[in-house]
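agent> call fold_tool(seq_1)
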Amino acid sequence: MDTLTFDSADLAVTEDFLSRAYARMHIGSSTPEAGRAQVRRSAIAPVSVDELALDFEMSYAVTPLGRICLCVVHEGAVRDHSFQGVEDSFGPGDVVLFAPPDLPYSGRIDHARYNITMLDPALLAQVAAGPDDSRPVRLTGHRPRSAAAARQLSHTIVHLRDHVLADPETADQPLIAATAAQHLAASVLATFPNTAVPEPTAADRGDAHPAMLRRALAYIDDHADQPITVADIAGAAHVTVRAVQYAFRRHLDTTPLAHLRRVRLAHAHHDLAAAGPGSGHSVTAIAARWGFHHPGRFASLYRAAYQRTPHQTLSDG
């Protein structure tokens, strides 16, 4: 996991830092002396979560980021924010897409405290399929579909910041990092209009046969200890993401990622039973090894599957 902090009241120093941390940009201030800019970043490879506080009014003109950039405003305002075909202003509680990854944007920060979350656009294709395999999934609107969707995405970002990225040992677990990034991507797609096509085509339904499902299940069994995605599972089965999702729903009444979670839970159960008391292994460490970063959620899933607590299995091993 990577962390970064910045604190300066020098406008030129702030511009240089922001250009290195985001993309090349020009900033300015209408006040004779610029105020203080503070940034705190936590990041794993495909995702970064930044908390920013600017106690002055700052204009910005930014070159394309190459990443999906989300903004959640806590206090103050973002005014006159514009990119191709869009001009808008945001206030406390607003959750917005700053701009498509390939477009420049500009605007003004007005004494604001806000969150910037950035993710690799390729993450969207790991959890959903576009119109065809040759075109990436894109977001097509900068405002959420609904207030409820915006709140859910905001909760997802807070959870990522406070329960995954806040603990370097947790964030550095490959399965946890991959699962958290995929969950964020799925939340983004559920929040903003996009080009993903969720329903299977006739070809997808034709591909969703038992032999294909067996290939997908075998791939999951063989790679459960690795940070795999739905796109990886579909690729191994030689079908689209939609087809593999449809096959799991039709034949098993579940999803590929839910099945993957059950397989990983079974591995965690085996490791708990094999470790035993006095081994030096903890429930938290074993759960994290298999991609479960929330102890309470892991314990709940474990009890539902095995009718006992993880600690009881570890103690009886």
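agent> call fold_tool(seq_2)
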Amino acid sequence: MTIQTLPFANLISIDRTSATPIFNQLANGLTKLIREGKIRAGDQLPSSRDMAFIIKLNRTTVIAAYDELKAQGWLEVIGTKGVFVSRNLPVMNPISFKSTHSLSRNAQVLPDFYHRISFDPPPYREVKPYHLMINDGQPDPRVAPIHSILNRYKALSNRTDLHRHFLTGSPAGNASLCTELASFLSKTRALNIKADQVLVTHGAQLAIYIAASMILKPGSRIIVAELNYILADKLFEQLGAKLVKVKVDRYGIDVDQIEEICKKSRPDLLYIIPHHHHPTTVTLSAERRMKLLEIIRRYQLPVIEDDYDYDFHYNNSPILPLASAEHGGYVLYVGSVSKTLSSSTRLGYLVGSIDFIQQASRFKQLVEIRGDVLFEASVAHLFSNGEMQRHLNRSVKLYRQRRDRFCQLLTASLGDLVQFSIPQGGMAVWLLFPEEYSITELSGRLYKKGIYMNDGSIYRYSETVNGIRLGFASLNDDEMDRFAAALAELK
């Protein structure tokens, strides 16, 4: 097979002043060429040595870029023949969420799978004093740019001319934040969207509630993971839905089982956490993602994709969301800004077609007339001036270090008592204890030492599960040491 001889030096731009590592710039450039069809599946790329000569980079930089793309499924090494573009590419072409009203006469009509809201709004007009708390995966507010938000909030609140504008804006959220989120999601997740396809919510949980309420009704069936985010399960049950549970393994949710369910009778909704699944932290494999997208299109299966901490991936770049691929308009995308900043700053978002977001905005007004528009505008300022991206870059580096140290301490303090895998991303570790071991008793003994750790009962959906999620991102070195010492003493 002929090796690609494209003018890579002209096609791939390398900015040596950018904060993005050069190997990532090269990897992103090659991915872009594959997406655009300039490099096709099965094509052979130049060797790392030749590519380094062509693009005038160090060979180790090229090797790092190739390794990154191999880890993501874009490239494969075939024996001694060389490096090739994978014949089974991961998620590819981004697709816009398009409103049915904007379709041409000959275009395919997008699905109308959600409830319409009859409400027509007027025109836009004491926790115990623990010494240490171990959460299930939250960011560290001590490193977040909270002061920048507060300073911006104060500045905006003093501008009385803005108050009327803020209080008569769209119920979907502050216009500047919707615009910034649309731009940020397009750049980082390849979601080809605009501001009117974003609904800002008071936390991601509200976004899940709104999306589910638009689709589910008493008696509806919804596919969820057998081990799942418990608050989502309770929400769906509260809406009268029946949970259809599917197993999760180290490659993510069992997509073959989802297909078998759909063959018998298509459910009303699928709720899925592809990245850093809660609580197990596993990520859906590229192969399963591709098959799941095919199932979604074939069976016209509505999906809520909960991508609560996409930005925190440590070993390789995260695979693109389901919502970034061709899904026929069936995938609704939910994300969280709270996971980026602090759990106390409640801010989430829901992405869908223009028509869906318009309907969801009307529903939102029934439960929340409007969000904190000054706060939303203040967060928008973080995105617009680049401070949010800088914070993310710092946080990923810090949380990676904390993950590594936390896992080392768990191994040293608990030894063979627990089983866990070092998570590729996210902010927590999923630990499994022997069936006979009492996590509840351990939690009680830690409590006496002034350390809070949940007792794992919320994860015991069956007798075979005896696990717990332990967050590391919010713990500094001293806090980790104290927790590890207590575990070693009490195990």
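agent> summarizing second result for user.
The first helix runs from residue 8 to 11. The chain has three domains: 8-85, 100-120+145-385, 394-490.
agent> awaiting next instruction.
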